[in-house]
Description:
The protein is an alpha+beta fold. 27% of the residues lie in helices and 29% in strands.
Amino acid sequence: xxxxxxxxxxxxxxxxxxxxxxxxxxxxxxxxxxxxxxxxxxxxxxxxxxxxxxxxxxxxxxxxxxxxxxxxxxxxxxxxxxxxxxxxxxxxxxxxxxxxxxxxxxxxxxxxxxxxxxxxxxxxxxxxxxxxxxxxxxxxxxxxxxxxxxxxxxxxxxxxxxxxxxxxxxxxxxxxxxxxxxxxxxxxxxxxxxxxxxxxxxxxxxxxxxxxxxxxxxxxxxxxxxxxxxxxxxxxxxxxxxxxxxxxxxxxxxxxxxxxxxxxxxxxxxxxxxxxxxxxxxxxxxxxxxxxxxxxxxxxxxxxxxxxxxxxxxxxxxxxxxxxxxxxxxxxxxxxxxxxxxxxxxxxxxxxxxxxxxxxxxxxxxxxxxxxxxxxxxxxxxxxxxxxxxxxxxxxxxxxxxxxxxxxxxxxxxxxxxxxxxxxxxxxxxxxxxxxxxxxxxxxxxxxxxxxxxxxxxxxxxxxxxxxxxxxxxxxxxxxxxxxxxxxxxxxxxxxxxxxxxxxxxxxxxxxxxxxxxxxxxxxxxxxxxxxxxxxxxxxxxxxxxxxxxxxxxxxxxxxxxxxxxxxxxxxxxxxxxxxxxxxxxxxxxxxxxxxxxxxxxxxxxxxxxxxxxxxxxxxxxxxxxxxxxxxxxxxxxxxxxxxxxxxxxxxxxxxxxxxxxxxxxxxxxxxxxxxxxxxxxxxxxxxxxxxxxxxxxxxxxxxxxxxxxxxxxxxxxxxxxxxxxxxxxxxxxxxxxxxxxxx
Length: 744
């Protein structure tokens, strides 16, 4: 069990326990418990979201306005921003409750528990008070701009129960005055109370928030910012009093007639009720989980993995994949071309293709405005494309001034999002749709960023990783990203049968860049003359796999960084530990180098340093009073991708490496994960021996794909192989045709 501790104002220590998988049904649920209202320093609420409406439920099943590292619990609605400078998503309110039994206020919890159910995407709380217990179920329905909260109240003695559900709509941030959002009118009828408002932000938003109860209640407005729905009944000990609340959000940002949309949403809630809406929501999430799984011995890694995949869908907007959807935190829901690629890689390597394609599609949709950023009159195929650093939903720049605006490697990550999705799906229509994205990115580098030197090419000064400071000449990771962009654009041109001359220019330029990658004679270094330690030193394997594992300079760079990782274990020049983002990042190159020890050590350590629900922080060092951004999607994305690479690592030469990074101590492993070519690998290892292996194609279009499965010899009983095979080094290579028997 993992314990979290907190010194309370009363001077005692409370212990919060998170029950590991052995004590729960599976990795699907993570439970936190406490006494009174104490919470551990790693507790940052349960995130519930559908990629549009995003919110957090606290330990008492409400949204007390307590600060959790960087945010206060509230409803954020993606795309509804105040606008630059100091942009953030507009808060759309939060709820609290008040319970009394026989006139006695129940406001001091005796004990509480909270469970995040990841499989079905809801938070469940049970809070015990002196005279009653309250169970809460809260979720954000898939596909609806709505928050649903069910309260189940059980009194311990007969008498009268009074229960008020209070929704406060009072948007405020550290940077914007309250006057930017104005309530135009408030009205109540039946079991419903509504706010109609106008918000002056990046756009002008007019909308309605309605709070509906499925039980008789008296709605009122105790003050200008609060709607209260009061219910009461006679208490019968042991008999539950149930009330469901539906908070609906409608505005004119995407639907012009927001009043009609509000009416439709209220009608939908009333007609379908809690059970039907909850069932539809759970069905949607079960579909999300259905096509892949893992089961590994290290349950901390497994729990963090499943929380990570849960988080990735919570964070998947209709536009792209932001760092987070929070009000006044997590960069206001903006989209980083850099970060969104790590999330896309996690989703693609887990088979969640509906979501992994979104960054590339989003960038292609905004391609013209990004071309105008570079080219007079927006001329195409001239000087390329430069995407903004922090994109709003309409493609406009949302970043404040700073040296981060001199990054150029985010175009490489945009290309990586597109290319990797294609490799995993074999979807040529997708590649064709996003090909110009790749071309324009390649042209930007060749026309604006590359200079001749010593018979080769170098990359001009630009900001590389921010920890390294302002612009560097010929930075290693940026150079690897440009090489990747040029070579993958050429590969896409060949597949589509177009642009042979452009493809040749790309390949020739990439070849010249390879000659001048900065090194000190022993290893690649972050930039010319660098003495810094930087995770950018591993960038030639991940995020940009352009180097050969046999490259001695590359191998030395990876292990030199690993040996000194605690000196540069996160994005900023602070902290002493290795965050989940970096643990996942460096694990991928280690897998590529055949390391079956260090990836699991790194990921297991990172998993033990997560939040209460195995959620990843940007930095989480409570012992050093240093915590940044709970529920940090780039961290969960890199973690998930690294675990997937330990189990299945695909190569563009047709090889599929199975269990290339699993430690020998892991004796029982089972998984189903995608590989390149639109295929899925399903394998089971029992007592350190392979017991089943198959490659399947969910699409008839890819049913004739042939791969070479590469697997450590120690796992394989060669007498059971049902296909052609050979031995190479310490591995067994099996010719694998989709749908054909591989192992007896």
